[in-house]
Hints:
Elements: H1 3-14, H2 18-30, H3 39-51, H4 57-65, H5 70-91
Amino acid sequence: xxxxxxxxxxxxxxxxxxAAAFDLGVAxxxxxxxxxxxxxxxxxxxxxxxxxxxxxxxxxRADVADELTxxxxxxxxxxxxxxxxxxxxxxx
Length: 92
């Protein structure tokens, strides 16, 4: 993904789009689509995609989690909660 397209994808995913979140998880887990390999970010996006009902996201999240420490998973989960809290604030 070029930077502008990547930023748009993040914006769409951050609004609760499960498919966009899953795509970002794939991009970060594989270093494709212009994203750097960042397994913490991949876990965050897969976690959000799973929360929003993407059927492949739980398995992808588990695969990434196998490569992370407990501390790294905690960081990814905190980042996912922050996205969810932002959505809740916007909805209120």
